[in-house]
């Protein structure tokens, strides 16, 4: 999962989303879960700032991410 921390996304809560994902996945930015299902990476800007905060999973862009949406992404892509 790539979490945008560019200016627009940072201002609109991207850092909180990254922190939540780190807690939920029990990994830090730049790491991969033991199962290999998720890795976390911070990115400077995806170029779709109007959708901030933005998370990209595989090639899918997810905009206006809230903590609920972030948890849903983990469920959807984690297969649980
Ligand atoms: S700052 Fe996040 S998409 Fe531009």
Bound molecules: FE2/S2 (inorganic) cluster
Reported for the largest beta sheet, the result is: 4 strands, mixed
Q: Give the averaged pLDDT, no decimals.
A: 96
Instruction: From the alpha carbons, calculate the radius of gyration and give it in angstroms.
Output: 11 Å
Distance between the termini: 16 Å
Strand content: 15-25%
Q: Any idea what the shape is?
A: globular
Order of helices and strands: EHHEEEH
- Physical arrangement of strands within the biggest beta sheet: 2-1-3-4
What structural category characterises the helix and strand content?
Answer: alpha+beta
Number of strands: 4
Helicity, as a percent range? 25-40%
At a glance:
This protein is α+β, with helices and mostly antiparallel strands.
Protein model, in words:
This protein has 80 residues and is α+β, with helices and mostly antiparallel strands. The chain is built from three helices and four strands, in the order βααβββα. Strands 2-1-3-4 form a four-stranded mixed sheet, covered by helices on one side. The longest helix is centred in the first third of the chain and has 12 residues. 19% of the residues are buried. The model has no long low-confidence stretch (mean pLDDT 96).
């Amino acid at each position: 999962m790539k979490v945008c921390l560019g200016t627009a996304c940072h201002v609109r809560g991207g850092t909180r989303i990254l922190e939540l994902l780190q807690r939920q996945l029990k990994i830090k930015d730049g790491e991969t879960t033991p199962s290999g299902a998720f890795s976390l990476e911070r990115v400077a800007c995806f170029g779709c700032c109007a959708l901030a905060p933005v998370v990209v999973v595989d090639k899918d862009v997810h905009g206006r991410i809230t903590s609920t949406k972030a948890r849903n992404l983990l469920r959807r892509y984690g297969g649980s």
